[in-house]
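Key result, reporting period 2: structure in, sequence out.
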């Protein structure tokens, strides 16, 4: 039974990642702080007839050490990314066998789910008829199956669901896991997201709604907050964090990385794809987190922006940050790590949460690469092109999704 004692504190005790710039926490972080991009020529399919020629693909992904061949055939690529990231996080936290299974849960979301499986099996249906469609189509396709599979693998019998809020998905997953522990419904949670959207159909759809960059120069195409930005770069991967109640973690001698101190969830209720022009609801979410976290002007803050490299997002997000922080906005350290790992959709919030945790624990702040042309409507300190050594008191992350979904989360070092 849950309790309403909101004095319960929540900490991060483990992390895992599969990304275009690294398939472990260390390789991912090394790439970020060295400004190394994972964006390149799109290799997954023939792009001859496509305006978009580049993507942020996970290179040389082989999950065989964690997922056997038979299980790989029964899991869409998005699920495989999620399973591997969650495995890393659980191993990092050493939570296995150190928590009551009924107090251990999973919130692993995906914006799209198993779209590759759906496309492949639709082709089978058209070419060979209904009897040839895989009996695994449905469990491989649905967006909640990664969350369920991870629970089975780690005997997590507590709260479990899969949030689907487009690009805000995994920040919502982490935030709702934070609330679940804080309010007493669990002692530990695996939280994050995964996405595998790099295929002919998804790229065509995102291109035709004018979301993706048509710049064919993969070295400079993703340029958040830069005046010449013209769209995001589609990415893929998975990321997971283990969240744990502070006393539970302390009593078992866990390695505590940071404390989760704030989370907000709002909706623009404005348009299916465009952000609200006056940014009221994004700003409200940031303001809620500032208040929850007891952030004051004297504190040094790193903010990992949603920063998609689209003209509207970057301008309106900048306005929202300035509205929430007021005069102290100019003191913030802001960057968009999407400039390196691309936009990983349902996985991107969790990846960027990991960047926040590492920024706090390592005292280095990752840059926004490809920032070369100043936009007067984007006038914050975006940590241009090179990381900086800078200790901060808090790290925050914004995630904004189609449908007007806004999620903001904050961490601090203990």
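The corresponding designed sequence is given below.
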């Amino acid at each position: 039974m849950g309790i309403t004692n909101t004095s319960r504190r929540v900490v991060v005790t483990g992390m895992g990642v599969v990304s275009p710039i690294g398939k472990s926490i260390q390789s991912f972080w090394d790439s970020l702080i060295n400004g190394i991009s994972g964006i390149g020529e799109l290799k997954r399919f023939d792009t001859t007839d496509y305006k978009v020629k580049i993507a942020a693909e996970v290179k040389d992904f082989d999950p065989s050490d964690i997922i056997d061949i038979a299980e790989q055939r029964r899991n869409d690529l998005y699920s495989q990314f999620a399973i591997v990231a969650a495995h890393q996080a659980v191993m990092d936290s050493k939570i296995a066998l150190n928590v009551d299974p009924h107090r251990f849960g999973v919130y692993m979301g995906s914006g799209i789910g198993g779209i590759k499986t759906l496309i492949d099996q639709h082709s089978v249906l058209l070419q060979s008829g209904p009897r040839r469609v895989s009996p695994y189509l449905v469990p491989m396709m649905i967006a909640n199956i990664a969350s369920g599979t991870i629970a089975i693998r780690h005997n997590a019998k507590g709260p479990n669901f899969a949030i689907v809020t487009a690009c805000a998905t995994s920040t919502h997953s982490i935030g709702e896991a934070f609330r679940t522990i804080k309010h007493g419904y669990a002692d530990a949670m695996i939280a994050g997201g995964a996405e595998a959207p790099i295929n002919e159909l998804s790229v065509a759809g995102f291109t035709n709604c004018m979301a993706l960059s048509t710049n064919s120069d993969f070295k400079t195409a993703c340029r958040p907050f830069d005046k010449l930005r013209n769209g995001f770069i589609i990415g893929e991967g998975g990321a997971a964090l283990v969240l744990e109640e502070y006393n539970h973690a302390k009593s078992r001698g866990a390695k505590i990385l940071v404390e989760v101190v704030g989370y907000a969830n709002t909706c623009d209720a404005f348009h299916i794809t465009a952000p609200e022009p006056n940014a009221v609801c994004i700003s409200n979410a940031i303001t809620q987190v500032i208040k929850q976290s007891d952030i004051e002007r004297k504190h040094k803050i790193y903010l990992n922006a949603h920063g998609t490299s689209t003209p509207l997002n970057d301008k309106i997000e900048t306005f929202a940050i300035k509205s929430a922080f007021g005069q102290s906005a100019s003191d913030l350290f802001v960057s968009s790590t999407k400039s390196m790992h691309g936009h990983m959709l349902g996985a991107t919030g969790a990846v960027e949460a990991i960047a926040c945790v590492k920024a706090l624990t390592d005292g280095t702040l990752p840059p926004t690469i490809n920032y070369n042309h100043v936009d007067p409507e984007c006038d914050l300190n975006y940590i241009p092109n090179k990381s900086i050594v800078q200790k901060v008191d808090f790290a925050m992350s914004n995630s904004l999704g189609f449908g007007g979904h806004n999620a903001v989360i904050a961490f601090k070092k203990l």
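DSSP finds 13 helices and 14 strands in the chain. The chain has a mean pLDDT of 97. This case is discussed further under Risks and Mitigation.
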